[in-house]
Design a protein that fits this description.
It is built from ten helices and no strands. It is an all-alpha fold.
Amino acid sequence: RTAVTCAWPTAKQSPCSTGWKCNSGASVLGWKRPLLASQTCSAANASAAPITAVPYTCSGCAARAASALRAGRPAPDSIADARQALSAARALPPRDKYNAGAEDYRLLLDGIHARSLAAAGRTKEADAPMAARAKTLANRHEEQPTHGVVLDLAAAAHQRAEFARASGDPTLAVRHVEAGLVHSAAYNEITGSPVNPVQLRLTLLYAELHLFGGVPRGAFAQDLAAVVRSAYKALCDRPSPQRAAERFVLGLYLTMLGATP
């Protein structure tokens, strides 16, 4: 190994908490990153650094934001730094199977931004970045449909439903859940899956909005009992210890809805 001099002794002391701050294209984590030794997470450094360095400046700030969220802390400064780094970039390498493009980083940041606002109790504000993420995903799906994007759309709808419920608007939450169920069903059709994890979260929330949220069954576009029964049956047909809790709760909700399993 070639000795490398780093700007920070450890990754934890790096402004981005990633370790991507060493010269000679190396890092204390052992990954090659073409960043300048003096570079920090800022728009100024992003514009001055080589184009190949910009993604790592952005992802470093995103990593710091994600780390704060895992610790239960909102991270608005890290998100703002990352957005500035993207805005300041003159260009980025095109997105391909090996490299993320600017759109990928915006999707990542929109998701982290939404979760950060929700963690701070600002659930109404959290809907805007999640809506932006959903719009970008929808555009991507129109250009190049993939099953992964369909499931991401379902997950974004679930997040927006949770934000609406937390903001005191269960009727809006129902609309988001129903949009997510459509995407989830499309994913199952494409992949041949009987059920998927996002579908289970959507189904549980769908039932809870009626049982505990006060939304009348007449406000539901889909047959609530049929949606819950379908997910419950899929779990019963393929029992798994990992899904035992969800299977139990779905069966309980069916009983509370006055429906037979």
